[in-house]
C-alpha cells in the first residue's frame, strides 16, 4: 500500500492523501450497525481524471479501491474489508449542466440531493428521489436508492439517464447519452446502478428532472392498528389514486418522532400522505384517499396547511432513524428492510409486528408502503451480546418471510456486507454465479469494493 500512497502524494500533493487514523476510521463505517473496517489511506478526488489516476495506480499494485460519498449507507457498503484506498468523492460537487427544456441535468458524483434541489429552485424543476439521508447522487446511483417519493416517481433506476464510470483499469466510459430511450446495445447504465461500486466508480450522473407541481398538499391520518393503516395504503394504490407519498409509521415510531421533532400526534399508527398536481386534481385525490381511510377506521385527515408545516412533517419522517435512536441515548441502530408485492404487504407487516411485540428489543417500523417496502430499526447496545443475538435472530425471520411472499431481502438499503447471505438465499447459486462472472469480466483482479454483494466462489 505504501508505494500507492507515495505515488499519489507525488502526483497530487501530500494534502490529498491521508493516513490519519481519525480520517481512516471516519471513512471505514457507515450509518448502520458497527461494521467498521478502515481503509489504509483516503484519497480526496476532485475530478473524474483524479479518480481514474487513483484507480490506475491501485490496479497496477492490485490494491482495493472503495468509493465514498457521504457515508450514509446502512449495510457496510464502504467498509474496507480488505484494506486499500478509499476514494472520497465529496469534493466532486459541481452541477455541470441543467437542460430545462429537456428536463435533465448532469452532476458530479459528490453533489448531494438537497444541494441539487437548491440549485434548481429558480428553474421550476426538481429531483424527486429522497432517501432519508442527504446522500450524494453518485452514492444514490451506486446503491439504487429510492425514498418517500418512489411510489409516484420511481427509484434511481428509473431516473438516471447516463453515467460516467471509471473502470477497474482506469478507463473512463460514458454509458449512454441524454436521449430518453435507446436500443443501442446493452443497457450499461442500469448495470452500474445498484452495483455498489463493485463494477466501476461512478463519477458523473445525468438525471431526469420534473416540473414542480402546481399544488402540493400533505396530511397525516391515525389508525387504530397497523393493519388498518396498511390496508388503507394498499387500497389507495389499488384504486389508482396517484398519491405522491404514502408512508407508514407505527406507534413506537410516532412516539419517537413526537419527542425528537416536536410533533403532537396521537401515539397510534399513522400514514403520512402527499398529493401532487393541479389544485382540482389534488383536491380530488385527497377526497378519494380520505374516503378510503374512513372505511379502514382512520381519523379525518390532519392537513399541513403551509409550506413550513409541510416541511416540518417530512423532515420528521426523514429524521425517523435519529428519532428512534434518541429513545435510548447511547444506542446504535440496526436498520433492515424488505419489499414484498403490495398484495402481501399487510400479511408481512402483521407477522413482523407480532415478532416485535414479543421481543425485549426496542424496535420501530416505518415504510414506503405505497410500493411494498418497509423498514425495521432495532435500537440496541452493540456491546450487549444478548441484544445482538436477538436482532440476528429476528432479521433472518423478516427476510425469510419476505422471500416466502414473493419479495426481496432489501428494497432500497442494498446488500453491502450485511445482507450477502440473504441475497444468496434470494437469488440462488446460479444467479449469483452470473453476477460473479460479470464482476470478473469487468474487474478481474477484484480491486473494486471487494467483499460486497456476494462472497468469492
3D architecture notes:
With 457 residues, the chain is α+β, with helices and mostly antiparallel strands. It has four domains: 87 residues, Uridine Diphospho-n-acetylenolpyruvylglucosamine Reductase, domain 2, CATH 3.30.43.10; 117 residues, Uridine Diphospho-n-acetylenolpyruvylglucosamine Reductase, domain 3; 105 residues, Alpha-Beta Plaits, CATH 3.30.70.3450; 77 residues, Alpha-Beta Plaits, CATH 3.30.70. Helices cover 38% and strands 20% of the residues. The chain contains 17 helices and 18 strands. It has a seven-stranded antiparallel sheet with strand order 15-12-14-13-17-18-16, with helices on both faces. Strands 5-6-10-8-9 form a five-stranded antiparallel sheet. Strands 1-2-4-3 form a four-stranded mixed sheet. A hairpin with a 5-residue loop joins β8 and β9. α1 packs antiparallel against α3 and α10 crosses α13. The protein is globular and about 65 Å long. It starts with a helix and ends in a 15-residue tail after the last helix. The model has no long low-confidence stretch (mean pLDDT 95).
